[in-house]
Amino acid sequence: MLIRKLRLDTLKDKKKMAQLGFEEGIGFIPFAGIGYEVFKTVTKNDSSPLRAAAAKKLAHDPEPDAAEALVKAVSDKNLAVRAAALEAIALRGDPSLLPKVSAALDDDKDLVRFAAAACVAHLSGLAEKPSNSNASKP
Prior knowledge:
mainly alpha; Leucine-rich Repeat Variant
């Protein structure tokens, strides 16, 4: 019953009917289907590059909310956003974020794991610097 209603809704929607007609009709033109698939892929609404660029811009934002946004982005569904957030956290140089990003070391994507390892190593080095520099002073 639900499927029948969905089919009727499609028939009543002019835009969906036009798209259905176009997709069915393009099948009769040799190799046109390939071009249409490429067009759909290129024009797909994907905001992950924009989110990754925004994460990099937050690296030098002094607001605490920016740090929390970056920590949240470390668990984003897109690996480019996760890696960019880790890079931005490393650039912030805030060792207090270290416990919040260490879980990214177990990410299933190599790129994110490597970015997390670099971030953890950098932040760990920053956390140790003040104590070492005070010990060397007379």
